[in-house]
Structures are given as C-alpha cells and as structure tokens.
Design brief:
With 74 residues, this protein is α+β, with helices and mostly antiparallel strands. It has one helix at 22-34; strands at residues 2-7, 13-17, 38-42, 48-52, 56-61. It has one domain. The protein has 1 helix and 5 strands. It has a 3-stranded antiparallel beta sheet with strand order 2-1-5, covered by helices on one side. The chain has a two-stranded antiparallel ribbon with strand order 3-4. It is globular and about 40 Å long.
C-alpha cells in the first residue's frame, strides 16, 4: 500500500510503499501524534522511515489491494 506524508513548509511528499494495513498505519500515526513523537513506517524492503510527528501536515493512505499494471502484475 502507498502512504504519502505531506510535511509543513515542504513542497514534496514523502512516499512509502508498505506492507502494513491501513489500520496499522493509522494506529501508528495516532500514537505518534498523541505523544508528539516520531511517526515510523517500514517499507516493502524492510527500511524504516522516521518522521517527526509535529511537522506532518497530512497523511494520505492509499488502497490496500491496488492493482498493479505492467510486467510486474504477471
């Protein structure tokens, strides 16, 4: 699933492809916002992305089962 995170005063988004469910991403975001901590996402390759929660403008959670197009879908 694709997760886009918009940052305050930054024009580009942070885009992470993760295997987490939408509920897991939302729960991690809620926890980070509630204690002004760090929003942590793990991508499909196991790399962690750490984002300071107090700098986040928005989080866009994509579809969980998005259809892949092209040779990767075979």
């Amino acid at each position: 699933m694709e997760v886009k995170v918009g940052m305050q005063h930054v024009t580009r988004e942070i885009i992470v492809e993760t295997t987490d469910s939408a509920a897991q991403v939302e729960k991690a975001f809620d926890a980070a916002i509630s204690d002004s901590g760090v929003f942590s996402l793990t991508d499909e390759h196991g790399r962690k992305v750490l984002i300071p929660a107090d700098r986040i403008a928005y989080v866009d959670i994509g579809e969980e089962n998005a259809r892949r197009v092209g040779f990767g879908a075979v």
